[in-house]
Write a structure and sequence with these properties.
mainly alpha; two-stranded antiparallel sheet; 20 helices; globular; transmembrane helix; sphingolipid delta-4 desaturase activity
Length: about 375
């Protein structure tokens, strides 16, 4: 934030505005980040890939999707269909996000084609162009929460609270994603997308946008032809009625934490959660650990956490505690946009670098 004539002026979070050049000039773009020290042998073991955990979890996921979809359709017209669609919605509209994420990193499976297949299926479910978001997420990891560089900043200060609440119901995200896919399907690449997607990949962006839009159009046509909402409850609709768990966990990743720092302990959050949510979320609640070492597979993140927790802030003990912290920060940022939570480190941790953090934070 900056003050002009006594008024607070919001920062430009776009990738084509002045903040991009400012971040580059400040040495924040493609910079060297802090990492906890891990012996080479242990790091190599953590990064070892295997098909077994992801194959098991994916078969369970697909099996539950089939069972709940069949149950919802079979009991359609009675209240017994509701629990089936509730579960189906979360498995489709929320679990897709973590599958998209991990397979996009190429770490979930050892076999690359398996990563690619699940990645494309999950990208469709979450309404993301698989090519656009592969490059977007690569930039997110290179320049995490660096304003003007990171295309995936969810909290633009001061945060529009009403808009944030609507996200739990898929609004307005679904319209933004569909609008982006429709634009790309007509051959248009935005200025922000051009900043992080290589030009030779633009035809691929257009191709996948057309594939996704064609499937959605087919679902709508079947719904109209059968005069039934069921096709839309099964395809596309869960991104609205089943996304609440994805949003619930996603907002905790970086919400209320620092911008423009080069230490993931300051801009990412680890939260202890229940086993069901951990399955849906594929262990992404170990988010500091993931950002420090993004090539460690999801199933090894609990082990990674145990190895480096002496060097990290205390994790939030629950989703409830994490939201209490997040809501406190969002309320402060309504009147103090530069405020950010600054978590204490244990005595065993390497300290935050004051030269990289103090100027960027007004938190506590």
């Amino acid at each position: 934030m900056s003050a002009v004539g006594g008024a607070t002026v919001a920062r430009d979070y776009s990738l084509s505005g002045p903040e991009n050049a400012r971040a580059v000039a400040a040495g924040l773009a493609s910079a060297e980040w802090y990492h906890s020290d891990i012996p080479r042998k242990e790091m190599k073991a953590l990064m070892k890939r295997s098909d077994e955990p992801a194959t098991r979890d994916t078969l369970i996921w697909i099996g539950l999707l089939i069972v709940t979809a069949v149950g919802g359709v079979a009991f359609w017209g009675s209240w017994l269909a509701v629990p089936f669609f509730v579960v189906y919605g979360v498995l489709y509209g929320s679990a897709c996000d973590s599958r998209w994420h991990e397979c996009g990193h190429g770490t979930a499976f050892r076999t690359q084609w398996k990563n690619d297949v699940v990645y494309h299926i999950a990208s469709f479910m979450v309404m993301r162009n698989p090519t656009t978001w592969r490059w977007s997420h690569a930039r997110h990891h290179t320049d995490t929460i660096i304003v003007g560089r990171d295309p995936e900043i969810a909290f633009m200060r001061p945060t529009a609270i009403a808009k944030l609440v609507l996200k739990f119901f898929g609004m307005p995200d679904v319209f933004y994603e569909l609008r982006a896919l429709a634009r790309q399907a007509t051959g248009q690449i935005s200025s922000d997308e051009k900043d992080y997607i290589p030009e030779e990949k633009w035809p691929e962006v257009i191709f996948w946008a057309r594939v996704h839009m064609a499937i959605y159009a087919a679902a709508v046509l079947v719904a109209l032809a059968t005069w039934s909402i069921i096709p839309l409850l099964l395809i596309g609709g869960p991104r609205i009625y089943g996304c609440w768990h994805m949003i619930m966990m996603g907002l905790l990743q970086h919400g209320g934490l620092a911008e423009d720092v080069l230490d993931h302990r300051l801009n990412s959050r680890t939260v202890y959660i229940n086993p069901v949510s951990a399955f849906i979320y594929w262990n992404m609640h170990y988010h500091v650990e993931h950002h420090m070492f993004p090539m460690v597979p999801y199933h090894a993140l609990p082990k990674l956490h145990e190895l480096i927790k002496h060097d990290l802030p205390r994790p939030n003990a629950s989703i409830f505690e994490a939201y209490a912290e997040l809501i406190y920060a969002l309320r402060r940022q309504q009147v103090e946009p530069d405020f950010a939570i600054r978590k204490d480190l244990p005595p065993t941790a390497a300290p935050y670098r004051a030269d990289l953090t103090d100027a960027a934070m007004a938190g506590e």
